[in-house]
């Protein structure tokens, strides 16, 4: 009987949903107090299992600078989770992949406020890139390309 229990337990680990890597992860979202899309973005993360704390900031540039977010990828809000930052409207699937794979990155970024990105309304034609920012200060690169289905 113990062998059967072990096999069942091992199989359950293999088939854990991808969101489990992020389940319960503590996230701090820094945002402008007057921005509505930031709240929608944070709510989506909270609904997916992240433990979200929101902080209204008077000086978002100082927050971004303090975390080392390159100006070329600045977005709307900045979140921190498990030693990474998420800059702008990073989709859930990108954050889940980041936390599951744990690459040597400082964080992920979606520059600007792309139409159809998480928190910016639903748009099946949304097309934008999620950029990876290496910890070593190297060149950013496309981590995940969001394209129309």
From TrEMBL:
<protein>
    <submittedName>
        <fullName>Putative metal-binding protein</fullName>
    </submittedName>
</protein>
<keyword id="KW-0732">Signal</keyword>
<feature type="signal peptide">
    <location>
        <begin position="1"/>
        <end position="21"/>
    </location>
</feature>
<dbReference type="Pfam" id="PF04214">
    <property type="entry name" value="DUF411"/>
</dbReference>
<dbReference type="InterPro" id="IPR007332">
    <property type="entry name" value="DUF411"/>
</dbReference>
């Amino acid at each position: 009987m113990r062998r059967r229990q072990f096999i069942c337990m091992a199989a359950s680990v293999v088939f854990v949903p991808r969101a489990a890597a992020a389940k319960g992860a503590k996230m701090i979202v820094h945002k402008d107090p007057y921005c509505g899309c930031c709240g929608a973005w944070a709510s989506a993360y909270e609904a997916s299992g992240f433990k979200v704390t929101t902080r209204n900031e008077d000086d978002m540039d100082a927050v971004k600078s303090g975390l080392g977010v390159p100006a070329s990828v600045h977005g709307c809000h900045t979140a921190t989770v498990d030693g990474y930052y998420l800059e702008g409207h990073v989709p859930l699937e990108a954050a889940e992949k980041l936390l599951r794979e744990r690459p040597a990155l400082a964080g992920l970024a979606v520059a600007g406020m792309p139409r159809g990105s998480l928190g910016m309304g639903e748009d099946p034609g949304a097309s934008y890139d999620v950029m990876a920012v290496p910890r070593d200060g190297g060149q950013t690169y496309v981590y995940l390309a969001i394209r129309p289905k």
